Amino acid sequence: MNVLAVPEASFAVGIDLGGTQVRAALVDGKGTLLARAALPTDKAGGPKAVLGQMQSLVHEVSRSVGLDKVPAVGVASPGPLDARAGVILTIPTLPGWVDIPLVEWLSDWLGKPVTLGNDGVVAAVGEWHFGAGRGLQDFVYVTVSTGIGGGVIADGRVLQGRRSLASHLGHMTVEASGPLCQCGNPGCWEALASGTALGANARAAVLQHPASRLAALTEPLTGQHVFEAAAQGDALAQELVANEGRWLGVGIVNLLHLYSPELVVIGGGVSHGFELLHPIIRQHVDSYAMPPFRSVPIVRAALGSDSGLVGAAALAFMSLAEQP
Amino acid sequence: MNVLAVPEASFAVGIDLGGTQVRAALVDGKGTLLARAALPTDKAGGPKAVLGQMQSLVHEVSRSVGLDKVPAVGVASPGPLDARAGVILTIPTLPGWVDIPLVEWLSDWLGKPVTLGNDGVVAAVGEWHFGAGRGLQDFVYVTVSTGIGGGVIADGRVLQGRRSLASHLGHMTVEASGPLCQCGNPGCWEALASGTALGANARAAVLQHPASRLAALTEPLTGQHVFEAAAQGDALAQELVANEGRWLGVGIVNLLHLYSPELVVIGGGVSHGFELLHPIIRQHVDSYAMPPFRSVPIVRAALGSDSGLVGAAALAFMSLAEQP
After folding, report:
1. How far apart are CA B56 and CA B293, in angstroms?
2. What one-character DSSP code corresponds to residue B184?
3. Which residues from chain B sit within 8 angstroms of residue A287, using beta carbons?
4. Which family does the UniProt entry place this protein in (chains A, B) (predicted)?
C-alpha cells in the first residue's frame, strides 16, 4: 500500500523546520494545502523557543477547521536525527540543538501525536503520496540546494535503516581526490554538485572570464544567476551548467545502481534550472549507467518547495494509518 | 521476521552458478551443509547445457535424503538478472546468456519451485539467515573478489528495487576522475578496490620496486601474494594493502551513509586479507564517516566461500515460507 487511504476531509498539519524559517501548513487527505504560515527561526532562543514557534504555527494554520479536527502533526527537520526515537541528534545550522526529544516535547504541548522525519526523507514522502512519485514502489527523491539530501522509497516502503539514518544521499564520495565536504569527508556529491558548489564554481570562473555576462553582476553570484545567464546564451554560464549537470549525473548513476528506483525526482533550489540540466543529466545517465538502468525517467519535483511541508503532513497521515 | 522459522529437519538445495564452476549443496533448516558437489561450468554448451548440469547436481546432492524430501531449490547467479521474473538478463562472463528464463526452465525440469537471486544478494541472504548478520534488521554484505558485489538487508527485508536490480554496490563511482570500470563507468568502486584492481596495482608497483619480495615472484601477481608478502613485512606489499584498505573504506563510508546498516560484512577472495585490511578500513571509517555512523562494526563473512551456496538454500526456504 503506497497510496494513503485517507478520507479527503481528514486534516493534518505539516511543519518544515529550516535554518532560516519555520513553516507550517494545514493539508487535507488529497494533499491540498489549505492554510500556511511561517516565522523566522528563533535561532538565539534555542530548541524550546523554536518548538514554541511550532506550537503557535499549528494553532494558526488549524484555525479554519479547528484544532480538534487535526488528529496528528508531522515535522520535517534537518538532521542527523533518529526518526524512530523522535530525537534530533544535531542540526549543524542551529547551535544548541543536540539530542532534542522533539516528538516528546511537542506532542506533550499539543496533546496530539507528532511524527518526526529527516527533511529529505519527508520531502520524498510528500512526492510519493501527493507528487511525482505517486503510485510507485521504488523511487528516489534528491533535493539539490545549499546541500544535497533526499529520501528513498524502496519496495513500497520508506527506507529507514539503523536509527532511521539511511539515504544521506549528499554524503557519498564521488570524487575521492575532490574537494572536502563540510561533513569532513573528501569529494562528497554535495561538495561537487550542490547549489553552493555551483555558486562557488561560478565565482571562481568569472575571475578567469571577465567578458562573461556573469562577471558584470554586482551581487554575489549564485546558481540562479548561472541558470539565467545560461538561458540567455552566456558561454561561461552554459559551461558551468554543463559541469553541474555532469556531476548530478555521476551521483544519479550511483543512485540507480544502488537503489534501482523506477523514477528519480529532483527538487530543491537547483531544480529551477531543471530544463537546462535535464538533457545533460540524461546524456550522462544514458552513457554511463549499466544498460538495465538507462530507461529510468528523471523528473522535477511536482510539489516544488512544498515537498517537505506536504510530506510532513503525509507523515502524520501515515502515522494514523499505522495505529492499531 | 528475519530468522527463518524452518524446522531443522527440512532440506533445500542451493546452487551457485559461477563463470568457472557450478556448485550445489544440500542444506538443512539450521543452515548446515550436508552434501556438496560441483562441475566445471559448460560455457561452450550454453544455458541449456548448464541448466542440465544444475539438474544433475540437484539429484546428486539430494541422494542421501531423497529428492522428494527437497521441496525447493534456490539459485545464485551473476547478473544483471530480474529475480522477481526469474530471468537472467545477461552474464558478461558467460557468452550466449541473454534473457534466459532460468526459473521457468529449471522448475519445469525438476518439478519443484525454483527461486533465483543475484549472487551478491543471495550471499547476503546466506549471511543474514545463517552467518554474521543473523538476527539483524539492517546490514550490508560486500563481496570483494574479481569484482565487487553484494546485497543489502534493510528494515528486515532484502532490498530489491525495480526489477530487483538494487545493490550493485561495486558500480558506484567513488573517483570520477579514476580508471574506467569494465562496466564503462569511470571510477567505480570495483575498478579501484576489487581483487583485480589490487593485483593490477601490485603488478604495476613491482616495476618501480625491484627490491620488493613481490618482484621475486615468477607467477602472475595476485591480491593473495600481496597479503602474504605484507604479513611477512614487505614494505611495498604493506603499502599496497594500505591503499586497498583505504579504497574499501571510501566505499564503506558511502554504504553507511546510504543504507545505514547495523553491520558491514566483507566476503569474497579479498577477505583472506581481512586481518590486515580491517584496521585500515576501521581507521578510514572512524575518520570520515559522519559521527552517528562510526560505531558500526565491520566483520568478515562467517560462511566464507559458502555464503552464496547456503544463501541459495535460504532463498528456497524463504520462498516456501512466503507461500500461502
Report:
1. 47
2. S
3. 184
4. Belongs to the ROK (NagC/XylR) family.
